[in-house]
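New here. Invent one.

***
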Amino acid sequence: MRYTAIMTNDVDDAPFFQPLDIAYTLDAARPVLANHRPIRAGRAVQPHSHPRGQLLWAHDGVLRVSSGGNVWIVPPTHAMWIPGGLEHDLVTETDAHIRNLHVDPSALHRLARLGRDACSVRVMNPLMRALILKLCESDLSAPFDERTNRLVDVVLDELAALEEAPLSLPGGHDPRLVRLTRYLGTRPEDPRLLSELAAIAGASPRTLERLFVKETGLTFRAWRTRLRLLSAIERLNRGQSSTEIAHSLGYSSPSAFVAAFRGYFGRTPQQFLAA
């Protein structure tokens, strides 16, 4: 079996798809396995975990990953590190060509910098992109030869060095908070104040504000700002302009949206895409 094989159209057309067997393959002699497959927009993997750590990257397209009440938006400029044994789920926000690296538990000590307790979004660089593409072209089903072992060593070194990016959206656990964050997650453009949204959660505005700070570390205003900026990344990757995004997400003007985006990501929307 070649682990680089693309999934069949039957699987791709299903609303849910399953992780491949390589995520569960324990083999210290093959510390890194890789696969790639195209997935259509709106497909999902239900909550699951696997013993191998995973670097999840969409060569093109936008992914949404959830774990432990947190949500991450992952554009093609970034990848998602998912530690082994951590439950998570995945939704493709757009058509995406997904490429995965799966790291055997025996090699995870080399990735201690990435952490073993929580997911994180990592900034991709040209070398890491090239290494993943090369590994996805390799036959990893047979015992590794010397050349493949050298390639895997470089992959592990570069993976450990990837920088973290602030692309997470904490969701919290309190049922009242979850009701509101789930609602706003599907309607980030909703302009109503917290006092008007409180009925959705079944709690007072004061209680909700306290829950936001306690469980997400953000005020409601800061949380919604981050939600809208992460939603903006999805829309940028769909080809929408800053003007379209500003109007659709409730900003007063395109310049207000660009200023908010630059304030959070350190670059304009177009610079972010160009990166």
